[in-house]
Design goal:
Distance between the termini: 13 Å
CATH superfamily: L-arginine/glycine Amidinotransferase, Chain A
Structural class: alpha/beta
CATH topology: L-arginine/glycine Amidinotransferase, Chain A
Radius of gyration: 22 Å
Helix content: 25-40%
CATH architecture: 5-stranded Propeller
Number of domains: 1
Shape: globular
CATH class: Alpha Beta
């Protein structure tokens, strides 16, 4: 079976999702509501053709390095082309479970799976109303979030964001019906099937899950993955770990809403090579890394921004509060106790845990935006914040010391190269800024 045993080892097989038209097409150009991504305002200036050409650089880069690429939309087409009527009924029942209406099995198309039922809006003259698709089920080209593979198998995610709640149902079809994935990938848990009653949803999203090595898994907990989701996931992984390989599963606190650029763990830290990490400065406290830019400067900057906005009495929306970041990056370490996750210690930050365990070199920390030139360098802080918002930290390693990164983040890419990391730059001028190369890939098999 295929497994993932690190974040920076050689990548052998990966899942990607060519649904980039979701960036620009079939949306009302108004500020959105969460009920359906039909109404989310997105990139009205973008060039669709150029955007598709740019996105297709990603699978080309991966294949050039010998990675086997599985693409969700093309697999869905192949599934429907070869499906029997009974298999089509099974797909409709699974994807439209709990919905008031669904397409007939015989008429089912990929557009139904992606765009909803009906797949396109239309005017009904008899009812004198416009009929909208029930729900868009594949909203963005970020398969990292909907499933993830670990040293013991693959998990289907439970999405916190309402507009993505049905997406895992569609992605799960790929694992169940593609002949290669059905043979090579073992689905060990669908987090949407949690049976216990919880006071918070058991959400777990792949953007929060990092396989540090064969014995260590880190999970961001906060805006997207809940603590309940973390505990249930840790329990399932420990139960499946028959050989006792997984020693630690860490809960890493994420910044709180409305700091939406910090929704997942993979937007603040990633791993270009063994012993190295690309880290968002000012996010993690650290006693192990002496030159870590201090979180205190970020908190003071947020205080100043709030004070200025309140003095002008012109807030344009919810403002991030310093408290939203105060505990961010802290790390609770759990071990396996007879299949149950048991808290064994608390660390100041994930960075300090990794350094203390010898999984990250203290001099292997690379900063988004490069290193500051002086102590309390506010201009560096702002430059780092801007590059982070443009996906600078969201790199993906193809093999040790080789990453794919967005071209637009010049300072960060230069810092990676200064630390001996080779960077394949992905043209990005027409691509979205909600995710990057890491979000756009879901490793299926990695050394």
């Amino acid at each position: 079976m295929w497994t993932v045993r690190s974040e920076s080892g050689a990548l052998h097989a990966v899942l990607i999702q060519e649904s980039i038209e979701q960036f620009w097409e079939r949306r009302l150009p108004f500020t959105g509501i969460e009920s359906s991504p039909h109404y989310l305002a997105r990139c009205p200036h973008a060039d669709y053709g150029e955007g598709r050409d740019q996105w297709r650089q990603l699978p080309r880069y991966l294949r050039e390095e010998g990675v086997r690429v599985f693409e969700v939309v093309s697999i869905l087409r192949e599934i429907l082309e070869g499906a029997t009527v009974e298999e089509r009924r099974q797909i409709v029942e699974e994807v439209w479970r709990g919905m008031p209406s669904a397409p007939d099995a015989e008429e089912l198309t990929v557009d139904h799976l992606l765009w909803g039922y009906p797949p396109r809006p239309f005017y009904n003259p008899e009812a004198d109303r416009v009929v909208l698709p029930d729900f868009r089920r594949v909203a963005w080209p970020y398969p990292r979030d909907t499933s993830f593979t670990t040293p013991v198998g693959t998990v289907i995610c439970n999405m916190r964001r309402y507009s993505r709640r049905f997406e895992p149902r569609v992605v799960k079809l790929v694992y169940e019906f593609d002949p290669v994935l059905r043979e090579k990938v073992e689905l060990i848990w669908d987090a949407n099937e949690a049976e216990a009653a919880y006071t918070e949803p058991p959400c777990i999203e792949g953007g929060d899950v990092q396989i540090i090595d064969e014995e260590t898994v880190a999970v961001g907990v906060g805006q997207r993955s809940t603590f309940t989701g973390f505990m249930e996931t840790a329990r399932r992984l420990f139960e499946r770990d028959r050989d006792g390989e997984i020693r630690y599963i860490c809960a890493v606190r994420m910044a709180d809403y409305p700091a939406v650029d910090y929704m997942h763990l993979d937007v603040v830290i990633n791993y270009p090579d063994a012993g190295k990490a690309l880290v968002m400065p000012y996010y993690f406290d650290s006693e192990a890394v002496r030159d870590m830019p201090p979180k205190r400067l970020l908190l003071k900057t947020l205080e100043a921004v709030r004070a200025q906005a309140e003095a002008d009495d012109r807030p344009m929306g919810p403002l991030v509060h310093p408290d939203d970041f105060r505990e961010a990056g802290r790390c609770d370490v759990y071990e396996n106790r007879n299949g149950e996750p048991r808290l064994v210690r608390r660390e100041l930050s994930l960075v300090d845990f990794l350094v203390g365990e010898g999984k990250l070199d203290a001099d292997g920390v690379i900063y988004v935006g490069g290193a500051p030139e002086a102590e309390n360098d506010v201009e560096h802080l702002m430059a780092a914040l801007m590059e982070q918002a443009r996906g600078a930290s969201n790199i993906v390693a193809v093999k040790p010391g080789l990453v794919v990164a967005y071209r637009r983040n010049r300072r960060t890419n230069a810092a990676l190269r200064e630390h001996g990391v080779r960077v394949k730059e992905w043209d990005d001028s027409y691509l979205d800024m909600l995710g990057g190369p890491h979000c756009s890939t879901s490793p299926l098999w990695r050394s």
